[in-house]
Amino acid sequence: MPFFTKYVTNVMGFAAGIVILGLTFITVVDVTLRKTGGSLPGAVEWSEVLLVFAVFLAFGSAQVTGDHVSTSVLTSRLGPKARRMLRGVAAIIGIAAVVVMIVVATQSAMNSIAVGEYRFGIAQVPIWPARVIIVVGLVVFLFEYVRTTVRQFRDPMDEGAMNSELRMAEAALEAEEVNRNES
């Protein structure tokens, strides 16, 4: 396992899990207090900001494990060369899109830091840390996206390079065969 993946991406994925536990705790406490006639002040505001942490800290980890949402509607019926070419085009478009997102998110984060942006409600919750995490998460995702794409193109049969799209294509073909047998 590459150093960056082991010590950055996986640690961020673990941190996302801790944030989700924190969100769960906040929700349970808030719901419990609401049943007794009260509420946890700022629960909604903190939950909104922490949800951003949970999502963007886990982006790179989801790429490494192939857990991002994907579909094989187009690629499952293509031959190996055409599938590889289509994936290459999709990867170039995807990388360009992520770079644009990083640029826009960085500008937004810098502006948020400069003005000390807060989420106003029952509690004042700073938003700028979440905006910074968006940038960090996108950068880590981009690194892992490029790394896994390059690995997949170097050795398309490498088990580690197989992503969820290939698993889904196999499952779709199996389901289609089951449907034919049932008819």
Automatic annotation (TrEMBL):
Domain spans labelled Tripartite ATP-independent periplasmic transporters DctQ component: 24-154
Keyword Membrane: yes
Alphabetized InterPro entries for the sequence: DctQ, TRAP_DctQ
GO cellular component, one term: plasma membrane
Keyword Glycoprotein: no
Protein localization: Cell inner membrane
Transmembrane segments: 7-29, 49-66, 86-107, 127-146
Main location class: membrane
UniProt keyword terms in alphabetical order: Cell inner membrane, Cell membrane, Membrane, Transmembrane, Transmembrane helix, Transport
Family note: Belongs to the TRAP transporter small permease family.
UniProt protein name: TRAP transporter small permease
Lineage of the species this protein comes from: Bacteria, Bacillati, Actinomycetota, Actinomycetes, Micrococcales
